[in-house]
Design goal:
Elements (H helix, E strand, L loop, with lengths): L2 H27 L4 H12 L2 H4 L6 H4 L3 H17 L9 H4 L13 H12 L15 H20 L3 H33 L3 H29 L3
Helix pairs in contact: 1-8, 1-10, 8-9, 9-10
Length: about 220
């Protein structure tokens, strides 16, 4: 593979990775909106969801839109918001740290993620989901760092691409992989509708893929550096 082809391949990989993280951030950020449902139906119709390993029967999306939106909103609330027993979408609840500072909101993991975001000079809008270690914020953080990596590849700047890839690996190793897979297992066990069960399965599978491939991406970026 020549140098131009290598750069093109890494650019395409970064574009795809950024899109997946952006999609996952949107899925977990809030209840599915009519606009989001249109996009998801488009992915389903074009077989993009199945290519990502999502297995949802077409009949599920063929239901009346108002009914589907309402059922998904109820499921989202039941799974992630409560009241009552629910699966909090925050790292500090699930990341079983050696120091014992986990299981409550705004624990040590939350502070670490906040500092990580601030160290990159990134800002996130304030909302009820923007506690720094909310899964949607962590997915969006990856999307934003990958966007910087992509810009570096487009500029043929391997040094900067390597820099951002190392940041991505650090955040995956120290945060995402420490809690997202187990979080997804809990969703898969508790979900009543196929949508969030399949989204959780996709999330877990994708993080596992990232864990196996990120080092290869770093190796590629190190060439000629």
């Amino acid at each position: 593979m020549n140098m131009s082809a290598e750069l093109t391949n890494m650019t395409e990989i970064a574009e795809r990775r950024g899109m997946v993280y952006g999609f996952l951030a949107a899925i977990y950020r809030r209840e599915i909106t009519p606009e989001m449902l249109v996009q998801i139906k488009g992915l389903q119709a074009n077989k993009n969801l199945s290519e990502m390993g999502v297995n949802i029967d077409d009949e599920f999306f063929a239901r009346a839109e108002d009914e589907l939106i309402e059922d998904l909103a109820i499921e989202y609330t039941r799974l992630f918001l409560g009241p009552g027993q629910h699966i909090s979408p925050h790292e500090s609840i699930h990341n079983e740290r050696d120091d014992g500072d986990w299981g409550t909101h705004w624990g040590a993991s939350t502070v670490e993620v906040k500092k990580f975001i601030e160290s990159l000079g990134l800002q996130f809008s304030e909302s009820d989901t923007s506690v720094p270690d909310h899964i949607s914020v962590e997915m969006e953080l990856m999307q934003r760092v990958i966007a910087k990596e992509l810009q570096s590849w487009n500029s043929d700047n391997r040094k900067d691409a390597l820099h951002y890839l190392k940041i991505e690996k650090l955040f995956i190793d120290d945060h995402i992989n420490k809690w997202v897979p187990s979080f997804c297992d809990k969703i898969i066990a508790a979900a009543e509708l196929p949508f969030y069960r399949e989204m959780a399965a996709l999330t877990k599978k994708y993080i596992e893929l990232e864990m196996t491939e990120i080092s290869d991406f770093i190796t590629e970026a190190m060439k000629d550096n």
